[in-house]
Amino acid sequence: MATVIIPTPLRKFTDQQASVKLDAETVQAAIDRLIELYPVLAQHLLDKEGQVRAFVRIFLEDEDILALDGPNTALKSDSTLSIIPAIAGGIDL
């Protein structure tokens, strides 16, 4: 089963789970399954067309999936996906 690492800001939508193990053959299948389990994540991860929002990055191990086959990137049983939402804010010095 692939492991999806849930970032801290989204854990309130996954019953405080830091990671979720999913049976999925592709990144898209893993995203779909994650949203099946935790439907409220859809509004935080997907745009109106059901695609991963532009400001959300998904990494397979250390590679951005956009540098691979995007959502069609194949997963292995020991794959680790990380969801990385954009962080904004800070102060000007």
UniProtKB/TrEMBL annotation:
It holds the Pfam family ThiS. InterPro entries: Beta-grasp_dom_sf, Mopterin_synth/thiamin_S_b, Sulfur_Carrier/Prot_Modifier, ThiS/MoaD-like. It comes from the Bacteria. Gene3D superfamilies: 3.10.20.30. This is Thiamine S protein. It comes from Saprospira grandis (strain Lewin).
